[in-house]
């Protein structure tokens, strides 16, 4: 891949998975005896990425200890949110500020990632650089979602993201983003959707549709059903 650095968002409280997440951060919950975070890191390694930045806040010592004990075969640096949680936008900005790179692959570990996504992510990266875009999201049709309560957020027209009556596509939790988009932002608590909405207004938020089945830890009920699956 051309992209050298991946970001993993690991700062959240995971309240919808209480009581499990009262003592275990959501990225360290397991599916098939492997943590969500490890699944995500293994996919990133398979893509040939050189470095991972992980942001932490809630139960951050547990994330830090897990990464140190696992001794993954890739450079992983922890970037703390600081005294206050920064949300998705602030968390990403805080991480990109610590890197000289311009383009980043970003993951939410709430999704059960696997090497089956490798081809989609490589296709998304190709489209990103070919069209010289600033932000592209990996999307999936809601019909492919294990959690049938998830409604769609977006529509696609020639890989450009729209919001309309159809809105049958879900954000998978993987995107490529360019540092330039944060020029007018300072590090504080804000959602990445602020950036997306601005790009949508200008017809410049791109999407790449995956046809993989989508497994996402929305809440405790979904997680328990996934464990039975």
Mean pLDDT: 97
Radius of gyration: 17 Å
The H-and-E topology, N to C, reads as EEEHEHEHEHEEEEHEH
Share of helical residues: 25-40%
| CATH class category label | Alpha Beta
Q: Any idea how many domains?
A: 1
- Strand tally: 11
Strand content: 15-25%
Helix-and-strand structural type: alpha/beta
Which stretches are poorly predicted, pLDDT < 50 over at least 5 residues? none
CATH architecture classification name: Alpha-Beta Complex
The neighbouring-strand order within the major sheet is 5-4-1-6-10-7-11
Give the N-to-C terminal Cα separation: 33 Å
The gist of it:
This protein has 229 residues and is an alpha/beta fold. It is 28% helix and 24% strand. It has one domain: Spore Coat Polysaccharide Biosynthesis Protein SpsA, Chain A.
Can you give a write-up of this model?
The chain has a single domain (5-228), classed as Spore Coat Polysaccharide Biosynthesis Protein SpsA, Chain A (Alpha-Beta Complex). A hairpin with a 2-residue loop joins strand 8 and strand 9 (160-162). It has 6 helices and 11 strands. 41% of the residues are buried. It is of the alpha/beta class. The model has no long low-confidence stretch (mean pLDDT 97).
